[in-house]
């Protein structure tokens, strides 16, 4: 499908240069995003790995304290936000006593440098050094610190923020064995992981199915675009679940999944909508595409220049998603004829409900412990509505394919006799695979009933039709083991024998003569003239030459029969 047909001009005006430039705009954007991810991945290869190791865990939110300038301490319970010390570092303390086993502590840190010491001995340090330099928003990570057995003393957790919103922020800390911490991390956002896995899996299936259906139509991209959209959002949600940190520790890759990947979403929404509405709403689609490009370029420029980071412009992406889905809802309702009012109602209801939940969550209109879950539920409702569209479109497409196959078969078969039609014969020649080095001989035989017009005029067309059918049966029976029969005219037939020895062809012609001599209509017996041409079919042109030769010999036979010669 040519997405940029929406920029074409019907009528007297045409702007080929504009069309050529715009034709590759979206492709250029996708390439740019890909290069952006590649730069981040390659440049960030040397960064510190923060992958996790895979029990019950206990909360270690109590017993923490900060130290004041006068030497006193202030008790703190996590989560908490504290003030910086005089050197600009945020420090939180806890006293640990010796135990006879290793202890694992899990910290969730949001865009901060970390140093963990126990009795002034360094246990763990994390200091991101984003490369390229304009990548400042390496996202939050879980960090696992091991306290060796029999080690005790005062633990100090130092943090230094990479972004202002993370300054002095300390999340809950849990302790346990490695498997318990793993379960704790997965349990915290399991619903995002589940939704991400479902969307990604279904998206892959849809893309694969679209490739299969592409055999029937190169323009059937609806399922492909929806599948791509589901896969991207699914992968994004898996990153949001923080479970992917269990698989890989590359900070640059996490950054790409968290911030760059969502930039693809509005363009996949655009492509999905365009696959439905086509060229009917060019101005609206052009406006939507312009908005997509404008917002995306703005976010990228702000990030690269260090003016505003992606974390602070994410609301622009959310607004863009909402605007795109609203435009899609309106245009789909205008363009599509739903197969039932129930299907239409389900589409509108799920789409509106999903958008409302997305708006409330994305812009913080309300906040509950279940806010994220409601967001994902809304997201699923949106995809349910889109799946309804794909279901109807796919069902319609299947029906078109079925009917086209029916019509194709009808065109390939002569209805009156059941043998191949004239269309089938010339389709066979058109699809013939030319082989210049072929040596096997073939034979093409043309048959024509004598005096069919006299039979029709004297006894009627029904008798003539019976004669044609009887002739066809004679040819089929005689050449059942070596030829394919086609009806190419009213009473004209072609039999093509491929790789059949010449001797066998003459044997079958002799059998045909016997069958014809045994056939006679009660009202009028019929006779048949035929001509055969032997040739080596190397090219399509050879068929034309052979058919001309067989036709010539058939008419010679007809003239000989009229003059009474054998």
Your description of this structure?
With 566 residues, the protein is of the alpha+beta class. The chain is 51% helix and 16% strand. It contains 16 helices and 16 strands. It has helices at residues 16-22, 25-43, 178-188, 190-213, 222-240, 251-260, 265-277, 282-304, 310-335, 341-362, 371-412, 422-430, 452-459, 461-478, 502-518, 540-562, and strands at residues 57-59, 64-67, 73-76, 80-81, 90-96, 103-109, 112-118, 121-126, 141-147, 153-161, 169-170, 174-176, 442-449, 484-487, 492-498, 528-535. Strand 7 and strand 8 (121-126) form a beta hairpin. The radius of gyration is 38 Å and the shape is elongated. The chain starts with 15 loop residues before the first helix and ends with a helix.
List keywords for this structure.
single chain; 566 residues; alpha+beta; four-stranded antiparallel beta sheet; elongated
Percent helix range: 40-55%
N- to C-terminal distance: 63 Å
Strand order of the largest sheet: 1-12-6-9
Please identify the structural class as seen in this structure: alpha+beta
Strand content: 15-25%
Question: What is the overall shape?
Answer: elongated
Largest sheet: 4 strands, antiparallel
| Sequence stretches where pLDDT stays below 50 over 5 or more residues | 1-15
* Radius of gyration, CA atoms, in whole angstroms: 38 Å
Number of helices: 16
Report mean pLDDT, rounded to a whole number.
81
Number-wise, the strands total: 16
